[in-house]
Design brief:
Elements (H helix, E strand, L loop, with lengths): L2 H12 L3 H20 L4 E3 L3 E8 L2 E4 L6 E4 L2 E8 L1 H7 L2
Antiparallel strand pairs: 1-2, 2-5, 3-4
């Protein structure tokens, strides 16, 4: 499902115009992104939680050449599904 599909569903369900549903979805995504960027966890009950995780620098290996390479430290966004979502998926 694309962002535009979500906007269309919100527009249809709540009888909103496309501009309003676009603003709602965009502000939701911006809020989640901002919270994760500030190292805060975002939890949506029954769906899952979004959070960031910091990985330290390490030595990796290029699988093609076998050459050792330095991988710099990084922060990645992660999603952990709720038990309810997992049970829906695995029925």
């Amino acid at each position: 499902m694309l962002k535009s599909n979500i906007e269309n569903e919100i527009s249809r369900i709540f009888n909103l115009d496309q501009d309003t549903s676009h603003a709602v979805v965009s502000s939701l995504i911006d809020s989640i992104s901002s919270s994760i960027s500030n190292n805060n966890r975002v939890e949506i009950r029954g769906f899952g939680s979004f959070f960031s995780k910091e990985y330290k620098a390490y030595k990796g290996r290029n699988p093609k050449t076998g050459e050792s390479v330095e991988v710099s430290e990084k922060i990645l966004p992660l999603f952990r599904p709720s038990k309810e979502l997992l049970s829906k998926l695995n029925k």
